[in-house]
Amino acid sequence: MTLRNQVAIWIGLLLALVLTLWIFRGVLLPFVVGAALAYLLNPLVNQLQKWRFSRAWATVVVLLCMLTIIMSLFLMFVPLIGQQIIGLIQRLPALVRDLQALVERYSPEINAWLGPERAAQLQTSINDLTRQALGFIATLPAELVNIGLTGASVVGFTVLAPVVAFYLLLDWEGMVRGVDNLLPKVHKGEIKGILLEIDRSMAGVIRGQGGVLLIDAAFYATALSLVGLNYGLAVGLIAGFMSFVPFVGFAVGLGLSVGIAFVQFAPNWWMVGLVGGIFLFWQFVEGNVLYPKLVGSSININPVWMMFALLALGAVFGFVGLLLAVPMAAIASVLVRYGVRKYKESMLYLGPDETTPPNDAAV
């Protein structure tokens, strides 16, 4: 079989997979969540097997422990978190209007500090923010329905996702052997190397970055609550859970918390600076401590590519697309790097007179 035919077959399989996902996007949510749970919990099940547990009992024990932890956290924190988030959403238009009034109140000082032209630009920006906040609140229920976050879908994946995770964990080793037996014998070693690199990248995304996300959310929520910021718990959780998109969680959390701090603490600018300092300090810790330790260099995804994947898959597949975007971006990144390596080893790149490929250590 020629290389052109092989490429055509793989492209055809990829298009068939995308078409299948698009057709069944309305029922994929519990399966995606269940598969993610299985992938996350599989190392724990493997560890219990090393301790002489059977695969079935190890799966039952791990899932029961995970569900117990999730339900305990749900019962303890969700009522408080839900109350704060609902209160923040209801209060957001009033907060923006209060910020607008605060700017008008301090307009002489702002004019003297920024100058008339920049002060006018600030006033225009706040007016635009007011309109956008009011529009966002008005369209939020419809948007939640559009991405599939209805009560029925939430209940559905809450019930089905653990069942899907259980059966996937139970047969994980069999599925791995099945995939291994389907690999072409001539290229099995090379394909297994790609799959191993994808697994490392996925582990960095789901396990490593997931750990960073949870730590971010816990720190922001705790720190903002301790300084007494209104809705600090909700703002911290929003900033933490949005940090899977590079810099977006930081930017949203910083802007939202500083805006609330201006309304709440002015003219105590030290408290406003303290709230902003929390985000600047933790951004430094995240970039220099958390990511190198928990994620390392296994992801290697450009932030622009990550944002594009989230927007594109979210637009096509809805909420399921948002869940699939990050791991799919990790897989695509590995495949693109592999394609670049193969291209640099090919005659198309080297030319007919070259006999040895270039050094690809930096690729």
TrEMBL record:
Protein localization: Cell membrane
Keywords from the named record: Cell membrane, Membrane, Transmembrane, Transmembrane helix, Transport
Bilayer topology term: Multi-pass membrane protein
Keyword Membrane attributed: yes
Segment forming the signal sequence: none
Ranges annotated as spanning the membrane: 7-23, 29-45, 57-81, 147-170, 210-231, 237-262, 269-285, 305-338
Keyword Cell wall biogenesis/degradation: no
Main location: membrane
PANTHER family membership: PERMEASE PERM-RELATED, TRANSMEMBRANE PROTEIN
Record family assignment: Belongs to the autoinducer-2 exporter (AI-2E) (TC 2.A.86) family.
Protein name: AI-2E family transporter
Organism of origin: Devosia rhizoryzae
